[in-house]
Specification:
- This protein has one domain (3-397): Rossmann fold (3-Layer(aba) Sandwich), CATH 3.40.50.720.
- 24% of the residues lie in helices and 26% in strands.
- The chain contains 9 helices and 17 strands.
- The strands form 3 sheets. Strands 3, 4, 5, 8, 9, 10, 11, 12 and 13 form a 9-stranded mixed sheet that branches.
- Residues 1-18 have low confidence and may be disordered.
- It binds flavin-adenine dinucleotide.
- Flavin-adenine dinucleotide binds next to helix 1, strand 2, strand 8, strand 13 and helix 9.
- GO terms for molecular function: D-amino-acid oxidase activity; FAD binding.
- InterPro entries: DAO, FAD-dep_OxRdtase.
């Protein structure tokens, strides 16, 4: 999310001069990961007509090329790769607030933009959008001051420092596939249509699937690298190896608020390895991770890495509640998995592309909003991104 994405001015554009203010649009979205689906829901809530064309549907099957079903899907910012100018933290904060609304938390103060979704937000049960008591362990003497005191300590709930290396707080933990399915179900209406298929280019997709499209949203994740008229070679996979193990105790399904259910260790990264544990609220599964390997296209599980993850989580398991410790000490592996996060060198892309015409003035491509490359953070920025897309749509459709 480049700072330049935010420089647009209302007077620069009068794209839909033939349309009235507040008129609804026909919008084609490429991609049904968390970014495409969240944007679709936001647009539907504003009365627009939406067609989603997607190769994969995360809640129907898992494909290594679609990151969303593989996500830990916990709200946990990685401040080492982002900074204020990229607006990452802004989107993350907005997403946290929207999720609190989704859980019906009335104590949350909302800013103007997220307020606009208030009436439409679904209420999720604890097993889909759960609060998770989380421990953050700083395991290296050289960890910087900004890492020690994270910017988000006032966003999450009940942040507290246990000692100078250990912090506890409550954050969101989503069940990614079920969350996306229920979100879409909530906004589903006759203004939404789907097509399973692969687009070769945005122009071809419009011609083939929605010839009257006023706007295209490119939420194709890694696919932006391959779409012929996007061809963004800055887009690269960030490989993530995970292991899913079984909870060994029925007690773990009903964890108390004070029990540590997820764990992140900062500063132990060996190469691109990282250590985290996420206990799923809705099932008897625990996700162990992981890795974040830029430019690695391999979707094959790596046996050595799996062993390192198991050893690493065992080493830190004493931070977790007793039942989780037991499961990790003698893990019963359900499956291992690899997901490719859609990364982008230089940061994600969220910007408006003007309509394109041929020399005879015939439209080749309507305006496009590119929204891809969220890397490790797609779930925790998703509502911030959707709100920004809404802002762009409103700004560009307004006739001054
Ligand atoms: C192991 C792992 C752990 C993670 N943990 C977290 C976490 O805890 N918190 C967090 O916020 N994020 C996490 N992430 C990151 C998060 O999953 C991604 O940032 C997010 O899923 C990206 O969403 P997306 O919609 O941009 O892309 P994707 O989910 O990859 O979706 C892209 C969509 O575009 C479609 N597509 C692509 N090309 C075409 C085409 N040519 N034609 C039609 N359709 C096309 C695909 O089929 C797919 O539907 C994790 C990821 C992994 C792998």
């Amino acid at each position: 999310m480049n700072a330049s994405s935010f420089k647009t001015s209302r007077n620069d554009y009068k794209i839909y001069e033939n349309k009235q203010e507040n008129q609804t649009l026909d919008i084609l979205i490429i991609g049904a990961g968390v970014i495409g689906i969240t944007i679709a829901c936001a647009l539907l809530s504003k009365g627009h007509r939406v067609k989603i064309v997607t190769r994969d549907l995360p809640f129907e099957e898992r494909s290594e090329q679609c990151a969303s079903p593989w996500a830990g899907a916990i709200w946990y910012p990685f401040e080492d790769e982002w900074n204020e100018t990229c607006k990452q933290s802004y989107f993350e904060k907005q997403t946290f607030e929207v999720m609190q609304r989704m859980k019906g938390d009335t104590n949350v103060k909302l800013d103007y933009l997220s307020q606009r979704f208030q009436d439409n937000l679904p209420i999720f049960s604890d097993d889909i959008l759960a609060y998770s008591r989380t421990r953050r362990v700083l395991d290296q003497d050289r960890i910087s001051e900004t890492l020690k005191i994270p910017w988000w300590k006032d966003v999450v709930v009940n942040f507290c420092e246990i000692d100078e290396r250990v912090q506890d707080f409550t954050t969101f933990s989503l069940q990614p596939t079920e969350y996306l399915k229920r979100l879409l179900d909530h906004y589903k209406c006759d203004r939404l249509t789907f097509h399973r298929g692969t687009a070769s280019s945005l122009a071809r997709a419009k011609e083939q699937f929605l010839p009257n499209a006023d706007l295209i949203i490119n939420a194709s994740g890694l696919g932006a690298r391959y779409l012929a008229d996007v061809n963004d070679k800055l887009v690269m996979p960030i490989r993530g190896q995970t292991i899913v193990i079984k909870k060994q105790s029925a007690l773990e399904v009903n964890q108390g608020d004070d029990q540590i259910q997820s764990l992140f260790v900062e500063g132990t990264r060996d190469g691109h390895d990282m250590i985290y544990v996420i206990s799923r609220a809705d099932s008897d599964e625990i996700l162990l991770g992981g890795s974040a390997e830029p430019d690695s296209f391999s979707t094959l599980p790596d046996k050595d890495q799996i062993q390192r993850i198991i050893q690493g989580t065992k080493q830190y398991s004493h931070h977790l509640c007793a039942d989780l410790q037991k499961s990790i000490t003698d893990p019963s592996i359900i499956h291992t998995g690899v997901g490719l996060r859609p990364g982008r060198k230089g940061g994600p892309r969220l910007d408006w592309q003007e309509e394109k015409k041929d020399i005879n003035g015939k439209q080749i491509l309507p305006p496009v909003i590119h929204a891809y490359g969220s890397g490790k953070t797609g779930f925790q920025v998703s509502w911030g991104v959707a709100i920004e897309v809404m802002r762009m749509v409103e700004e560009h459709t307004m006739v001054s």
